[in-house]
Design goal:
By secondary structure, this protein is α+β, with helices and mostly antiparallel strands. The chain is built from 7 helices and 10 strands. The model has no long low-confidence stretch (mean pLDDT 95).
Amino acid sequence: MSTWAGTDLGRRIVGYDERDAILYALAVGARATDLDLVFEERLRVLPTFALTLAQWAPDELGRLGAFDVATAVHGAQLLRASAPLPRAGKLELTARVGEVWDKGAAAVFEVVVEGEHFEATWSIFASGRGGFGGERGPATTPPPDGDPAYSLLVQTAPDQAALYRLLGDRHHMHLDPAAALAAGQPRPFLHGLCTLAAATLPLAQAAGAHPAELSHLEGRFSAPVFPGDRLDVRAWSAASGFAFDVAGPDGPAITAGTARFDLR
């Protein structure tokens, strides 16, 4: 087993106000007409906003030297919301390394962040860190059989990455063309968590739910999305919510997605 498994990444108090929650909603695709997402008088905070508050944890693991931050890739994300986020306030969060899976030429580090309102797990794919004799980890969930129940659209905005990065993930590759080229991409690309969160808005509408009622979200990042791309979301009804995937102009962007809307 990797010596990183179980590593304590510390505890932090993170604060935010209504302006931050509104800025986040706009950054993932909310409109000015969505008053309960963008107007402080009626504000309901999107559960995926929690992921911006916890971004320090995977960054901390990279800072400690578990992987090369220049080449590591965000492979998958899990979010379980247990209570609605307040409109503003301070949250106490703790973080640790969960499992570390051995993929041979690479390792996948799970970074787990826990708080009163949610638990979130980042899966970080790190080239050159495998081969330590550990387990490979669970297999990727195959797509559901049959035609999707819903075919939904997400239209990203040309300036969406520039807006989203103000929430905390300021890695240069999402804004600077030179940094994007160094990362192997032709131009700056959208944050995976922004794409994942954007998909929950039409999924909530299909479910007849409010997006702030999201209680479970999971997905694997297959390929980057570029600001301005049109995204096609396919969703299959499941007993506890939806299975879904997201495709951009060049093919799959998010696979093995699951979402549930029952947070009260």
